[in-house]
Amino acid sequence: MPISLEKSAKSQSKRASGKSDTLLWVLVVSMVGSAVVANYHFSNLAWAFRLSGWVILSPVVLLMIFKTAHGQRLWVFAKEARIELRKVVWPTREETVRTTMLIGAMVIAVSLILWGIDTILLWIVSWLTGGRG
């Protein structure tokens, strides 16, 4: 198959998938919008009935989203993020407690230092302006 015909076929399939993606996004937005309006309209019904409607609608909407090109990229990203999360070395409880205590001690020490500097500067300014002392 000549190169120009391959490019033409790829561009036509890309346009077709773009149109189907657009159609799916329009359906998703209209379904969610209709569900919000219905939820508001039927606000006098018990919340369990309205929640069941959302529980039924959510998987359908998610399935439609994951059929789009953006949804497929999102799915791949989520799978790769989960793989990377498994590679993380989490600290032990002892390390976490020790680090938290160190941070607490540093916050207290820096607070005391800043309080001392503020007190000295306040004393100097009041002495220069003829206030107290």
**Largest sheet: number of strands, sense, barrel closure:** none
Strand content: under 5%
When the domains are counted, the total is 2
SSE string, helix = H, strand = E? Answer: HHHH
Helix content: over 70%
Which structural class best describes the helix and strand composition? mainly alpha
How many helical elements?
4
Protein described:
The structure is a single chain. Helix content is 85%, strand content 0%. The chain has 133 residues and is mainly alpha-helical. It has two domains: 1-88; 91-133. Helix 1 runs antiparallel to helix 2. The radius of gyration is 31 Å and the shape is elongated.
Indicate the topology.
Elements: H1 3-41, H2 47-66, H3 69-86, H4 93-128
Helix pairs in contact: 1-2
Give me a quick take on this structure:
With 133 residues, this protein is an all-alpha fold. The protein contains four helices and no strands.
Structure characteristics:
133 residues; mainly alpha
